[in-house]
Write a structure and sequence with these properties.
Number of domains: 1
Structural class: mainly alpha
Helix content: over 70%
Shape: globular
Number of helices: 18
């Protein structure tokens, strides 16, 4: 349990430290952050509620031929499993490869935020520890989608579509981000709509049959309420509300108001779905967790007085620390799948 708090507190403390690093030291530290995340996520041992499910997937894919792998429901994740089985890397090879992609996306997105350290700290409790160390397929999809959001901000349509398509090959629910394509330029043009429509149709074809049944049964018809869905959605709603409250000041200071308006608006539009398909909405809300962290990381910047800004930062850290503490101490799943934390490289045998 102390490890998880350490991962959260380290970047939080750095974010409020009075000193600043030179560019060379900064790059070295960023590299160490990435290595640390890959180490704890990729080499974890029986950590995460879906561990056994992914073991079954690995065993199944290991018996398949390459053609069957490429025609599977989520060919990207299946291919990673197949490659790992061919080299006898086991599930650890899968987790390491997936952690590299997830970490790359998180780092690329966080580095574009005004406060890298605050963003990383707020991402720790739910996004990195909760999702990154359990929902491997969706974590990889999030990694690719973060690269897609960067491309969206740069107005790079084909790059945006490329990253979204890669995300879909790991978790098909991420195909919904294709709908952002026509909005990329800030002005909806006919060829943007046509391209997005074609992409949406092609991906929808892959969502027929077995995949449709699987996701409908798992996320829509399921009577099981997703564990942690309510606090995750509550934090998303809070961050979206704060964004729209500070939207005018945000637009005066930053050039990404348009993208955050779309994603924060999506957060609010999903809320009604919590009442009849909480598991499905929770899965979709997971994709917007990085946006939540980025918004909350910027909120202190809208307070001019340095003392108040520090107090607001500490208050936000206290909120996320409380979420982490409650989850670690009271969730019925953490004692089964997260505590104690185990790492294959730290085990004696």
């Amino acid at each position: 349990m102390l490890l998880y708090f350490g991962l959260f507190l380290a970047p939080a403390l750095i974010s409020v430290a009075p000193y600043r690093m030179d560019p060379v030291s900064r790059r070295i530290i960023y590299g160490l952050v990435a290595i640390t995340l890959i180490f704890f996520i990729g080499f974890r041992e029986h950590v995460g509620f879906d561990w056994n499910n992914y073991l079954r997937i690995f065993d199944k894919v290991a018996l398949m031929d390459l053609t069957s792998v490429l025609l599977s429901i989520e060919p990207g994740y299946a291919l990673v499993n197949w490659i790992s089985s061919q080299f006898d890397w086991g599930i650890y090879g899968v987790n390491v490869i997936c952690s590299v992609i997830f970490t790359a996306g998180v780092m690329a997105f966080a580095l574009r935020q005004p406060s890298f350290w605050r963003t990383i700290a707020l991402a720790m409790p739910v996004l990195i520890i909760g999702v990154g160390m359990s929902a491997t397929r969706q974590a990889v999809a999030i990694g690719f989608l973060l690269l897609a959001l960067n491309a969206f901000q740069d107005r790079r349509l084909f790059r945006f579509l490329f990253w979204v398509v890669l995300a879909v090959t790991f978790h098909r629910s991420s195909f919904i981000f294709i709908l952002m394509a026509p909005l990329l330029s800030g002005r909806i043009r006919l060829w943007h709509l046509a391209l997005a429509g074609i992409a949406f149709f092609l991906i929808s074809v892959f969502l027929t049959g077995e995949a449709t049944t699987y996701y409908t049964d798992s996320y829509v018809n399921s009577e099981i309420t997703a564990s942690g869905a309510i606090p995750r959605v509550a934090l998303n709603v809070l961050s979206a509300g704060l964004f729209f409250y500070f939207r005018k000041a945000w637009a005066e200071r930053y050039d990404d108001t348009y993208m955050f308006s779309i994603t924060c608006g999506a957060m609010l539009l999903m809320v009604p779905g919590m009442f009849n398909a909480s598991a499905a909405v929770d899965r979709m809300e997971m994709y917007l967790l990085p946006v939540q962290c980025a918004v909350m990381a910027r909120i202190p910047m809208f307070f001019r007085a340095g003392v108040i800004r520090t107090q607001v930062s500490l208050g936000i850290f206290a909120l996320y620390g409380a979420v982490l503490a409650v989850w670690l101490n009271f969730s019925p799943f953490t004692s089964l799948a997260w505590i104690p934390y185990q790492n294959i490289l730290l085990m004696p045998n």
